[in-house]
Amino acid sequence: MKFQVYRLFVFGLIVFSIVLIAMTGNLYSGSIQSASAAPRSAPYSLYLPIINRNYRYVASTVFGTGLEGISSSYGLNQMADAGANWVRSNNILSWASVEPAETLRLWNTQAGLEQELQNAASSGVKVILVVRQTPSWAQELSGYTCGPILSDKFGAFANFMHDAALRYSAPPFNVKYWEIWNEPDVDYRLVSPTSDIGCWGNQDDVDGLYGGGYYGWMLQSVYPQIKAADPQAQVLVGGLLLDCDPNNPPLGKDCTPSKFLKGILANNGGPYFDGVSFHAYDYYGSALGNFGNSNWNSAWNGTGPSVNAKANFLKGVLSAYGFSNKFLMNTESALLCDSCASDSTFETTKAYFLVQEYTGGIAQGLRANLWYTALGWRNSGLLNPDLSPRTAYVAYKFARQEILDSTFVANIGSLDVGTSGVAGYKFNRGDRLVWVLWSHDGATHTMSLSGVPYAAWDALGASLTRSSSMTVDLKPIYLEW
After folding, report:
1. 63-404 to CATH, choices 3.20.20.80, 3.30.300.90, 3.40.50.2000, 3.30.70.260
2. Domain 410-480 carries which CATH code?
3. For a designed S-S bond to 187, which of 37, 44, 201, 415 qualifies (C-beta 3.0 to 4.6 A apart)?
4. 367-387: per-residue pLDDT in tens?
5. pTM tops 0.85, yes or no
């Protein structure tokens, strides 16, 4: 009897599903026809939503964030709710703490980090784990935990990384991305011996490549050991600062430090990393929508966020050495302003910038793009100290929702919108095309579109009136087709 009841239930569910598909197909077809310039005559697929309690779409995207710590106290829950797929913590894996004497392993010193890794795994976000701090017995520069490793201790570091990958690649930690040092392209003389940045950079390097060759030599020892422990591990060149553009240096600036990656490749380090981590910040221009990074000749009314200039530079270096297959990750980005703690115009500009930053990251083909940080550095925060959302958080959450795991199609051109002065990108979201647009010159532009968009939204998720003639200004908008 129970089996018969179950069969009747299943049969009823199938019938209900068929009716639902038919009804939804008619409704969907009607909505498309009414929103388009002409009815669609070609066959198309209808994708019904998955009906599942507590289901959350978690397809991988570039969206990530830096956190002071991977916990609810620092905004982990809010960023996971916003759909962040990547996280990078200020709490690092310290070689000096785990191995204060060679071959010793004090993993208990990493209890706080290990809890953070478990928090990330439980929240469904992927960790980019930074490894740094040279123990005293392995320091090439005595007293510098931030500094390079003695060449005859490269093997010891490789053994440590093998053990670390073996330990942390498995549940409950699930680490797959390893970033070797943070901003290693900084000379040790420019920072304190215990700095959290640097300091493999060497301004006295005889080949003019700022110490990159020595770092690349280290990777040749370390990379095989990490892969032996976990073949799926991804090894990153530590987040490069890239202070300025060596191909077009600003007046009075020495941009030799940005040749660090070239040094790695010139010393045959290319086969010994999977991707390059770098940092790209921009600075508020004291007016709505204005920002730039003069060290990279980038600006809101020029090339856009510096992520574009830096990514293009790195691609050029990699390509020149035959390694254009390496992926890029921007592990620190934000709009900064030291004097904008209570500046509402800055907060609005930060939201507008964020849309350009993330859409630009997708257009550049980045694997990840991380905002630094959720709670803020130099007023960069997406959240207030009490974890309530700022305007930029609203823009972040909607951008993640709207763009999903889109792929880049093309730049927006004047032929698309019937006017110059408008910039943006076209993306394929799978179920539809999405255009992201904004005024490139600060003026308000009326666009002449070839049809009526299926949907239209502003940067903060407010619905816009759809028309074949729409306006756009500094506030980015999304058009769905």
Report:
1. 3.20.20.80
2. 2.60.40
3. 201
4. 999 999 999 999 999 999 999
5. yes
